[in-house]
């Protein structure tokens, strides 16, 4: 595999076999792939990294995903919800620190009203911030109200494109419903994000190729990969974590295959690899998210155990070491 091989496919398109070859690349080939992934990123975006702040405002969940510490009935999980004032004050702090995008994340909670979230979005929007939502399944009335209040983007990760694995990992839910909601989000005017959880027990390289094909088909504006990490008290607590080196190949494959999506350097890479998030940027990522969940609560948002919390200084240092300039994605006018 050399740069001619990669460039020809960037120009003419990748077959599933080509994507598989990227995911299975050895170290020498992967160095070439990373160089080309950065070249593709630089062709679509300025040499910038987009900084976000996230607050995880509720960890109460109605779902029982096998891999998640917040699953319904997990032993030891403490339920919390933040109040609106604390969320908005946190957004204002992010704004003062030069962060232009605020990301509201919650489990699939049924404990807050849609109107309450509408008010929170509108207050944050009036600070001059872009608002991204990642709050699970909701109907079109709520989606429309949140869009009108100022939320411009919505992330709903498909996690895995393998329908059988999806239903095994997320009992009671179907992949096809998630895909339908991703299409609905697009119809309702949101910029749409999806993503893969890499390393789930039973996941195959072919199903990861399927993830890339699905994100291409959905024409997502934001694509991501997180590495599976076991969470205490779950049915998967004794499973090994996913392979972050494979995850880096997935980052590069997203950049080469999807072209102009926003791709975050997710925190699981930093937990599993020295300079893991820097290496994501070197594989074509261009977003990093600072965790602003209040420290007294963030250990309760147990997507996995022993999380790495991205602080502002670490994010800025990583951006600088990647040779990029910090910026805000709100200024981007691109659309897929
Ligand atoms: S992954 Fe999300 S939906 Fe599933 S149990 Fe955890 S918080 Fe709930």
Description:
It is a single chain. The protein is α/β, with parallel strands linked by helices and 336 residues long. The chain has one domain (3-330): Aldolase class I (TIM Barrel, Alpha-Beta Barrel), CATH 3.20.20.70. It contains 14 helices and 8 strands. α2 (16-23) crosses α9 and α9 runs parallel beside α10 (244-258). The chain is globular and about 55 Å long. The relative contact order is 0.17. The site of iron/sulfur cluster has 9 residues, from loops.
Keywords:
336 residues; TIM Barrel; alpha/beta; globular; 14 helices
Topology:
Layout lengths: L2 H10 L3 H8 L3 H18 L3 E11 L25 H13 L4 E6 L7 H12 L4 E5 L5 H10 L1 E5 L7 H7 L5 H13 L3 E8 L6 H14 L3 E6 L16 H15 L8 H6 L3 H7 L4 E5 L3 H4 L13 H10 L3 E3 L9
Bound molecules: iron/sulfur cluster (SF4).
Estimated share of beta-strand residues: 5-15%
Nearest-integer average pLDDT? 95
CATH architecture: Alpha-Beta Barrel
Using DSSP, what is the number of strands?
8
Low-confidence stretches: none
* Largest sheet properties: 8 strands, parallel
Radius of gyration: 19 Å
Summarize the structure.
This protein is of the alpha/beta class and 336 residues long. It is built from 14 helices and eight strands. It has one domain: Aldolase class I (TIM Barrel, Alpha-Beta Barrel), CATH 3.20.20.
């Amino acid at each position: 595999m050399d740069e001619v091989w990669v460039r020809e496919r960037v120009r003419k398109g990748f077959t599933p076999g080509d994507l598989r070859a990227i995911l299975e690349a050895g170290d020498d080939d992967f160095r070439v792939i990373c160089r080309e992934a950065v070249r593709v990123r630089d062709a679509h975006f300025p040499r910038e990294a987009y900084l976000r702040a996230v607050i995880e405002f509720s960890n109460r969940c109605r779902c029982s995903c096998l891999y998640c510490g917040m699953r319904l009935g997990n032993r030891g999980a403490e339920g919390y919800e933040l109040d609106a004032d604390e969320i908005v004050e946190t957004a204002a702090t992010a704004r003062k620190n030069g962060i232009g995008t605020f990301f509201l994340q919650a489990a699939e909670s049924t404990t807050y009203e849609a109107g309450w979230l509408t008010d929170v979005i509108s207050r944050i929007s009036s600070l001059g911030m872009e608002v991204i939502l990642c709050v699970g399944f909701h109907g079109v009335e709520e989606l429309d109200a949140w869009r009108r209040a100022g939320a411009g983007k919505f992330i709903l990760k498909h996690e895995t494109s393998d329908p059988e694995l999806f239903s095994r990992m997320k009992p009671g839910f179907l992949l096809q419903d998630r895909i339908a909601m991703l299409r609905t989000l697009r119809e309702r005017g949101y910029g749409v994000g999806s993503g893969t959880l890499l390393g789930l027990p039973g996941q195959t390289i072919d199903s990861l190729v399927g993830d890339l094909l699905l994100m291409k088909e959905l024409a997502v504006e934001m694509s991501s990969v997180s590495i599976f990490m076991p969470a205490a008290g779950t049915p998967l607590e004794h499973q090994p974590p996913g392979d972050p080196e494979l995850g880096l190949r997935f980052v590069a494959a997203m950049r080469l295959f999807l072209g102009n999506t926003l791709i975050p350097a997710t925190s699981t890479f930093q937990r599993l690899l020295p300079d893991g998030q820097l290496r994501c940027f070197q594989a074509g990522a261009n977003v990093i998210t600072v965790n602003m969940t209040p420290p007294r609560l963030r250990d309760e948002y147990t997507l996995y155990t022993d999380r790495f919390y991205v602080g502002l200084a670490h994010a800025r240092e990583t951006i600088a070491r990647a040779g990029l300039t910090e910026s805000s994605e709100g200024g981007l006018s691109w659309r897929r």
